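Q: Please design a sequence for this.
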């Protein structure tokens, strides 16, 4: 059976026992009317008790979660009465004894009894720590419910149950100490002794430790689309422009640096002089090379009659 809960698995049944009630027309709770002035709520509680007993004995519970609802009704009664009397243990014992009357009358008024409800005087006797003992009773009933109804637990609700079980790791030892100090006058009357419900055993049985293990995730694979490998036409032209611009700027810079160096620094004057001198020398050499050989031949007297040549050079 699957059940949703916030604090404990049987809380839906507890809430059903505790829901508001209309006048049931019973005289079983008349003795609590004058007590209601001093302890507000005790009269209404008595009427709730009668209603709940009738629903149990008639099999009309909406949340039929436990095999022995009368036992859980005893826990509900103990806790609610203890809250009404503001944890006054003496007044608690008085009201528990007074509630025996409407309990028995309701039990005997029904001719078709299908449940053997325990007498409330058989439990909650001579308690020295009522609040903690109420917690033990609720613990036993909820773990008994887990044992009988919830194993295996569906995955969607596993975490809630594991958290609930884990919350009793330290409380469990305390409950055992309380029962030992009480000498089992009350603990042995429970459906099960708390020592039979070790939370660590339940935790291991449900494999709750696996909830804390991280899930192995496969390495992420990059998703390639059109934008990664093949840019669109518009984007391609923009990208080309961005690539060409730095190259063009570099070329302009390479041309401007020598020009500025030539114009604005002494290097320009030095180069101009070098170039001027070189051009002057080239002009001189050019003029010398351009002298006409005919001019040279005019100054040469040649005798072809087997006489030695006498060359006379005209002085330039």
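A: Design:
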């Amino acid at each position: 059976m699957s059940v949703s809960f916030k604090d404990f698995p049987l809380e839906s049944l507890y809430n059903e026992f505790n829901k508001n009630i209309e006048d049931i027309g019973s005289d079983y709770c008349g003795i609590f009317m004058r007590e209601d002035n001093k302890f507000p709520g005790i009269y209404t509680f008595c009427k709730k008790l009668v209603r709940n007993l009738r629903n149990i004995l008639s099999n009309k519970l909406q949340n039929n979660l436990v095999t022995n609802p009368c036992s859980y009704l005893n826990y509900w009664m103990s806790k609610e009465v203890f809250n009404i009397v503001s944890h006054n243990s003496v007044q608690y014992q008085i009201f528990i004894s007074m509630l025996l009357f409407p309990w028995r009358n309701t039990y005997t008024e029904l001719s078709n009894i299908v449940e053997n409800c325990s007498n409330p005087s058989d439990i909650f006797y001579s308690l020295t720590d009522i609040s903690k003992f109420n917690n033990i009773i609720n613990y036993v009933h909820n773990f008994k419910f887990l044992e009988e109804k919830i194993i295996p637990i569906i995955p969607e609700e596993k975490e809630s149950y594991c958290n609930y079980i884990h919350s009793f790791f330290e409380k469990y030892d305390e409950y055992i100490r309380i029962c030992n100090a009480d000498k089992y006058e009350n603990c042995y009357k429970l459906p099960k002794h708390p020592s039979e419900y070790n939370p660590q055993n339940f935790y291991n049985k449900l494999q709750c430790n696996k909830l804390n293990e991280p899930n192995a995730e496969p390495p992420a694979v990059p998703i390639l689309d059109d934008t990664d490998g093949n840019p669109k036409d518009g984007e391609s032209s923009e990208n080309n422009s961005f690539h060409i611009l730095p190259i063009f700027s570099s070329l302009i810079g390479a041309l401007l640096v020598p020009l500025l160096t030539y114009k604005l620094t002494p290097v320009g004057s030095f180069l101009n002089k070098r170039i001027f001198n070189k051009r002057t020398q080239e002009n001189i050499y050019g003029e010398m090379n351009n002298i006409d050989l005919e001019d040279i031949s005019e100054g040469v007297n040649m005798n072809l009659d087997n006489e030695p040549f006498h060359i006379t050079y005209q002085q330039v």
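Q: Thanks. Anything notable?
A: The two ends are 136 Å apart (CA to CA). Residues 233-264 form the longest helix (32 residues).
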